[in-house]
Structure formats: C-alpha cells, structure tokens
Design brief:
Layout lengths: L1 E2 L20 H9 L5 H16 L20 H15 L3 H14 L4 H21 L4 H14 L4 H17 L2 E5 L3 E6 L3 H26 L11 E6 L1 H8 L5 E5 L3 E4 L3 H25 L5 H10 L5 H12 L20 H22 L1 H12 L4 H9 L4 H7 L3
Parallel strand pairs: 3-4, 4-6
Antiparallel strand pairs: 1-5, 2-3, 5-6
Amino acid sequence: MRPAPLLLVVAVGISGYVMYQKSEAERLAAELALPTNSEGQAALEVQRLSQHRKSSAPAIDNASLQSAPLDLPRRWSELNDQAIAALEAGELERAVELFEQCLEGQPDQLVFAKNLAEALARLARRGLALDAAALPVSLPMLERATLLDPSRQDLRDLLQRWKASVETEAGFWTDETAHFELSYDGERTELLKHGYAQLTRLLEEVYDEFGVTLNHYPVGHGDPKLRVLLYDRDEFTKITGVGHWAGGIFDGTVRVPVADYSAERKEIERVLRHELMHAFLRSYGGTSIPAWLNEGIAQRFEAGAAETRTNQARQKLQGQTLFPLEDLVASFTQMTDEQRISVAYAQSMVMVDYLYRWYGDVLVLDLVSGCKAGRTCSETFRARTALELSVVLSDASKE
C-alpha cells in the first residue's frame, strides 16, 4: 500500500557485511540453536507441543484462537491443540480439518466454532492472496466463518467488502496483455479512448524492469496474470476499507482509484509502480514479509529519484518517535493515526535505503527470500552479518 500524498522520511548508520564460509543451512542452524538431524527436529516439535498442552492460554497471540475448556475430555483438547499448531505452521487446510472434527464431536462448544471461523478466514484470505481469481472459492469460506463466529465484526466487514467487489466489478471491461489483466468501468470513456493503451504499455515496461531487478518474473509456468483494477474513489474506499490517505492497495490484486486519468497520470504511474512491486515481492518472498521491508522497497522503486524521496523521508522523521521494528510487521492499514502512518512509511524507506547503501541489494533480497523460507528478517540478517537487525534502525536514526 502507498499513501496518497508523498509520505516519507527517516535515518541511517554504518555496519559491515560479514560473509561466513559455512553453508547457509549450517549457519542458520547454529544461529537458531537448532539440530540439523531429523530426529532432533522431531524431538523439538514434541517438546513444543507438550509445552503448549500445559498452557491454558491461547496458543498464539490472537484473541480469536482459544484453548479448549479444561472440563472437556482430553481427546478434544489435544485435537484442538494440534489444529492450533497446524495453524501456527501455516498448514491451514489441516487446521480446518482438525477444527471441523472438534466441532463435529462437540457441536455445543463455542471455542471450537470460533477457532474454525479463524482458520476458515485465514484460508479464504490466503486463497485470494495467492490467486486473485479465487474469490468464488474464498467467499463461501468467509461467509461460513461469519456464521460460526457472529461476534467477529472484522470478518463481517471483510465479507461486505468482498461482496461489494463482486458487485462493482461485474460489469468491468478487461484488457489483457502478456502479463496483466487491466479491468475498469467500461463507461469510463477517458480510459477507453486514451488511458488503457498507455497503462497497458506502462504495466509491461514495469514488469520487465522489476523482473530484471529481482531476477524474478511472477507470471509464467502456469501462474495467473497480475490483475490491476481501476475504480472511482468511492468504489475504492468501499471495496478496500482503507482511508482516503491511500493512493492504492495490493491484496492479491492491484487496486487503484482514478478520478481524472489525464490530470492524474503521473500520480497513477507512481502508485502503480509501488503496488506492482508489492505484487513482485509477494511472488518472490511470500506473504510473511514484514511491512517495513515491503513498504520500504516499494517506495524505493516508485518513479523518480529514490535519493530525493529518501531525503524527504528523513526530514519527515525529524523530531518523531520511531517505531520499534516489531511494531512495523503488520500492514500499515491496521493503523488509524495518519501522522503515525506517515512516520511508519518514512521510517521504512529510510531503513531500507540504509540497507541498500551499506549492505547491498543482495542482502536486501536475501531478507525477502528468507521470509518465504520461513525465516524472520532478524534471523537472516544475523546469519549474514553476525549483527542484530536492530542496529540498522539505531544507526539509520543517527545519520
């Protein structure tokens, strides 16, 4: 996501890039204190699950997931624990299956209904994130989740937005290129007469550029084309649920509001580049890239000189209290204070700029690809440099 006004600024510092001679697997195993043999890994898993079983607290930091009541037979508690562990591991289909068994065996247990609702909602979101055309499959899952847990206002709001998307986009016109599907209201004559040719050309040019930059091309080998949808502002707000500060969003589909194409052409190009980089990053690094890294890279590759935008970001951060990195993991759309949103974007850009300048683009891409392999950015950074990632924020803030 990219803020509509130019919201940038942050800090910078110095550190070395240390390369080890060990293999990546050995380095990471040593850094994480993990055994490299399968028996050791199995033992750790058993230990982790047994520790979880002893706790009556939610298995993960999410209020919607709960442990089974203590007065239930142990069988259902253990099955619920297994389902939560599967959810933690990203095995969403398995988690749904196990929660279904819990609810079928104990249909009056609200805990199991709520847990199943959360698992279904995550599976629905992931399906749509991985394939923008998966809404017909994801929508019924989300509908069932809202029925299982009517208290989840967030799920009801999301369901309403998804239904609005289906209704709004039903009559859209679609132009296809080698790598894109560009859809918009067919009654928008300024797009039909002029915009679509310029936009489809721009999309393909950016695709080639970003493909070279990341040495990765999302479309190919049977992968679906990237979807780009253009709305008027009211439609965009209704469907995305984000504030007026947002110039665009990527949620598996690139969505951009367009009021007057001719007047907004340069701004639309900036936003499209930003959101397309999000699409490339998700394809390259999966869905676990922290927001600060995701947004920092996306801002860096907008149109125009990155140095100028980074300097503006540094100015924006002057006198501001910076976020700890752990507070910049989730999407910035979850924030409500627009001033803090501005700081978050600025801090992300400055920190990513620091990483590029002092550690190089290979290290930055390692952080991204590490997320897809299940490593945190801190783990990857420590394995590559023997330093803590927090030092980057500290050094960057002193520049």
